[in-house]
């Protein structure tokens, strides 16, 4: 659907990928810094939970609006204006100490992310040929994970050496860099007027594509479990398995290492092989290590299991980009990515919310195994539905977006 380039624009991909890595690093730099600020100022888990909620809830609530805007407005305008506003908000954050105001400003930052995320997701398929999309997606996911790895570590160093203000101002600088990148990228998504009248939006709804809707449900179940694991594993690894803090650090990092490997390897998969059944296979693969971890006797064995789970998680991230881009018309991809991301983000927040009260109420091995079993059951329930569906929906005609070759 609308993969019409004669050659992929790798220079544009490099700009977007670099921006993604810088943005992820800056976001996690700020998030870790603010969590440390709240903790060091004597505020408890409620304040930190509020911070996490403020960072995630706007992405869910604003999805219907941000998706439509991504398909209606010039992508360059959205990215530049939003990133500039986020830079201002982050600069104000650097001089803010009241916890309620910090949480409110973090919510504003997340509102910006809610608008830029579907734009960037919809823009990447416009930059490359269909056969190069998995590679481009893999590169993008890898860059984001590198940023995620660097951000928290850098925050810990900077907060200890300089205080909270410097890392937050650095984050503001990353948003200004995104403004520059928005103007440097030649590829644009923008409305093409007909006789001076803006064309109507191409009709698209998630529920009209049953296979995609089912896959979103499966992915939401997987993400809910993985989010819960983020709460369970510190107790499971440290208390049930008796690991040292050093070993726990290796376990915590191993999932991200696996995601990096999965993004790189699965970026080489030909797009025609990224089918609904392949999606079910990788989602199931991310659940099996969670079940296996419940039966180990030493935390050392969790490391390879988490690497395997992260590998399939990285594959999911790559496959989702190709899968959604192949099933939604070009002019509707902003709404498509927003509609797909919202329930998945929401499931992740639910997983974090419900996991805490469960610790101490149930055996941790049971809790860890249950997260994997729930994901496997969701994939199993989806299998008969997906198996009967065609690999892709009928093409939707009438795209009203044009793609610039020189960014004029």
Automatic annotation (TrEMBL):
Domain Major facilitator superfamily (MFS) profile: 1-189, 209-408
Compartments (UniProt record): Cell membrane
First-listed, main subcellular location of the protein, grouped into a coarse class: membrane
Keyword Transmembrane among record annotations: yes
Keyword annotations from UniProtKB, A to Z: Cell membrane, Membrane, Transmembrane, Transmembrane helix, Transport
Pfam families reported for this sequence: MFS_1
Residue ranges of the TM segments: 44-65, 77-95, 101-124, 136-160, 166-185, 212-235, 247-266, 278-297, 303-324, 336-360, 366-386
Gene3D superfamilies: MFS general substrate transporter like domains
Lipid bilayer topology: Multi-pass membrane protein
SUPFAM superfamilies: MFS general substrate transporter (SSF103473)
Annotated protein name in UniProt: MFS transporter
Organism: Paractinoplanes deccanensis
